[in-house]
Each structure stands twice: as structure tokens, then as C-alpha cells.
């Protein structure tokens, strides 16, 4: 089980690394940016699942699967925290006006 | 043999520790969110694409991954000995366990050394945590992960000493299980650091 997890993780890591490395070395010309982003995230999520199941034995316990339930709950909360922060900060950034010159000061436009 | 691993997985103390691990995920979640927001705030300073050496990070990643693997093997070896005989004398299976744990420790310390090298190099280049929002977020996120690895390494040393002195008793096995969860969790967090910080940092 550990051996499977180890090899799968190596493959997934190398896949992500090679995709990005080859793309960057070819002056960003190989893949479209969004494809690469999605591919890399998918590889990361796959590797997370591999490690959770193979190394942390998640979901392999007998009923009533408390470890898994609690993990899913935490995963949900982390998703809310991360996505929520990005959403809020993006809107805040927009409403405050994007500042591109370092040291520039700008009055905040009033928020609706 | 695998019964013991699963029994320990269902044990209340280990479950409590699992919940702690998930709360630690919240910590990293907020640090990731902060990093995501501040990613582009380079304030005229260097960006990730300019700073990160991807092959170096790949080596770090493989080292940490291997340490997770050796930790798993150590757990299997300990479990095999624990279920087949309950004597406390140091005997060959112990060499396996302590040897594998020692290897894990070595890999963990190597990882920390590499990370320290990366950090000091950045600071020397003028890209320290105070240079920009992006770098503050980077150092905080990756630094916190590094601190966790350091703490896990100290815990591992203590655990190894306990195994050598008292053998694989039930409380020590429980501690070993908890340490193991901690160590694997750090590798899972690193997957995300590798992906979202380094790989994506280099992409743009």
C-alpha cells in the first residue's frame, strides 16, 4: 500500500513538474495557461487523495467512517475560507481601485 | 497485521489528534488564502518566476515524499513486531523500525537544510520577507510549514529515544501513530505548496 502510494505520488509530482518546466523553458509556448493551471491543480488533488488513502488510510476504516466525515467537513471549511477570501479580496481590490505604481496613494471610492 | 493499524486508527486518542491535524489545516488554509491574495504584490521587487528554482524544489519535494514513505515502512515494521510479540527487549525488528525512522529523520533534516538554504539565498538577494507583500506571504506560508517539519523532527528524535529505551509499548505505539499522522499531513500540505506556490509562481 505504501509502495503504491509512493510510486503514484512520484509519478504525479514528476508529471506536474515536467508539464510546467517544459512549458516555461519553451518560453511559455507549449500549453495554454488555463490548461496548465487546471492540469497542475488536478494532479495536486489526485496526489492528495493518493496520500490520504495510501499513507493516512483515510476511508479504509470500518464503519462509521468518522475520520472521513470529519476530514470532508474540514475540507469544506478550508474551501470556504480560501475561496471566500479570494472572492472578498478580489471585490475589495476592484472597489478600491487597482494600484499599480509602488508608493502611490489613492482615495478609496465609496463602497456601495 | 493491518488490523492493528486500523485499530489504532479508530482509537479515540488518535481520532482526537486527527481532529487537531484538521484544525492545523485551517491554519494553512488561511495562510494559503493570504498568499493567493498577495501573490501579485511584488512592489517592484522580484516575483516568484524570477526567484524560484524549480529543480531545487523538485528535489525538496522528492525528499519529503520519500521521508513519508520511510515513515510508513517504519510503522509497518513496528506493527509487525508489536502484534507478534510483546517483549520489550531490543531485537532485530527494532533495528528495522529505528533504522527506518532514522532515515526519515535524515531526510527531514535534509529538507529543512535545503529550505533554509533557499530562504537565506532569497534574503541575500534582497528578497527577504519585508521586501514585498508577496514575499511576506511566501515566507510566512513556507516558513510555517518548515517550522512544522522542524517540530515533527524534534518529536521524532524523542520518539526514537523512547522506543530504544522502553520498547514498543502500547502508549509508545499510540504516540508513534500520532507522529505518523503529523508527518504524512506535512507532506500533503507540501503538495499544495509545491503546486500553488512554486509551480504556479513560475507559470506566469
Can you give me a brief rundown of this structure?
The complex is a heterodimer of chains A (112) and B (204). Chain A has 112 residues and is mainly alpha-helical.
Can you give keywords for this protein?
heterodimer, A: 112 residues, mainly alpha, 0% strand, flat, B: 204 residues, 7 helices, elongated
Based on the structure, what is the oligomeric state of the protein chains?
heterodimer
Largest sheet of chain A: none
Number of strands of chain A: 0
Number of strands of chain B: 0
The chain-level structural class of chain B is: mainly alpha
Tell me the span between the first and last alpha carbons of chain A.
55 Å
Amount of helix of chain B: over 70%
Instruction: Output the structural class of chain A.
Output: mainly alpha
- Give the low-confidence spans of chain A: 100-112
Q: What is the beta-strand fraction of chain A? A: under 5%
The total of helices of chain B stands at 7
| Succession of helices and strands of chain B | HHHHHHH
CA radius of gyration of chain B: 19 Å
Low-confidence spans of chain B? none
- Biggest interface and its residues per chain? A-B, 48 and 48 residues
- In whole angstroms, the N-to-C terminal distance of chain B is 48 Å
Helix content of chain A: 55-70%
Tell me what the structure shows.
The complex is a heterodimer of chains A (about 110) and B (about 200). Chain A is an all-alpha fold. Chain A is about 70% helix and about 0% strand. Chain A has helices at about 1-25, 35-55, 65-95. The longest helix of chain A is centred in the last third of the chain and has 31 residues, at about 65-95. Chain A is flat, with a radius of gyration of 20 Å. Chain B is mostly helical and about 200 residues long. Chain B has helices at about 1-10, 10-40, 50, 55-85, 90-125, 135-165, 170-204. In chain B, α4 runs antiparallel to α5 (about 90-125), α4 runs antiparallel to α7 and α5 (about 90-125) runs antiparallel to α6 (about 135-165). The mean pLDDT of chain B is about 85. Classes of the chains: A mainly alpha (about 110), B mainly alpha (about 200). Chains A and B meet through α1, α2 and α3 of A and α1, α2, α4 and α7 of B.
Amino acid at each position: 500500500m505504501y509502495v503504491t502510494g509512493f510510486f503514484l505520488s512520484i509519478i504525479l509530482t514528476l508529471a506536474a513538474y515536467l508539464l510546467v518546466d517544459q512549458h516555461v523553458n519553451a518560453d511559455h509556448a507549449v500549453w495554454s495557461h488555463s490548461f496548465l493551471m487546471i492540469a497542475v491543480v488536478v494532479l495536486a488533488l489526485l496526489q492528495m487523495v493518493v496520500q490520504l488513502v495510501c499513507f493516512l488510510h483515510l476511508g479504509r476504516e470500518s464503519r462509521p467512517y468518522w475520520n472521513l466525515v470529519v476530514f470532508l467537513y474540514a475540507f469544506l471549511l478550508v474551501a470556504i475560507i480560501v475561496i471566500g477570501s479570494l472572492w472578498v479580496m478580489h471585490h475589495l481590490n476592484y472597489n478600491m481601485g487597482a494600484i499599480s505604481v509602488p508608493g502611490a496613494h489613492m482615495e478609496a471610492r465609496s463602497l456601495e | 497485521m493491518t488490523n492493528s493499524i486500523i485499530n489504532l486508527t479508530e482509537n479515540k486518542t488518535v481520532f482526537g489528534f486527527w481532529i487537531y491535524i484538521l484544525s492545523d489545516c485551517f491554519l494553512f488554509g488561511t495562510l494559503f488564502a493570504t498568499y493567493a491574495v498577495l501573490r501579485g504584490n511584488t512592489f517592484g521587487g522580484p516575483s516568484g518566476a524570477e526567484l524560484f528554482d524549480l529543480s531545487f524544489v523538485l528535489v525538496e519535494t522528492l525528499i519529503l515524499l520519500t521521508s513519508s514513505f520511510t515513515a510508513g515502512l517504519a510503522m509497518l515494521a513496528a506493527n509487525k513486531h508489536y502484534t507478534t510479540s510483546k517483549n520489550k527487549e531490543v531485537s532485530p525488528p527494532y533495528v528495522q523500525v529505528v533504522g527506518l525512522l532514522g532515515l526519515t529523520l535524515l531526510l527531514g533534516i535534509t529538507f529543512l537544510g535545503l529550505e533554509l538554504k533557499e530562504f537565506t539565498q532569497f534574503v541575500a538577494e534582497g528578497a527577504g520577507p519585508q521586501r514585498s507583500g508577496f514575499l511576506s506571504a511566501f515566507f510566512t506560508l513556507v516558513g510555517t510549514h518548515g517550522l512544522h517539519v522542524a517540530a515533527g523532527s524534534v518529536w521524532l528524535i524523542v520518539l526514537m529515544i523512547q522506543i530504544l529505551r522502553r520498547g514498543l509499548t502500547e502508549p509508545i505505539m499510540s504516540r508513534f501513530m500520532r507522529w505518523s499522522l503529523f508527518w504524512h499531513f506535512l507532506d500533503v500540505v507540501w503538495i499544495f505548496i509545491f503546486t500553488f506556490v512554486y509551480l504556479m509562481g513560475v507559470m506566469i
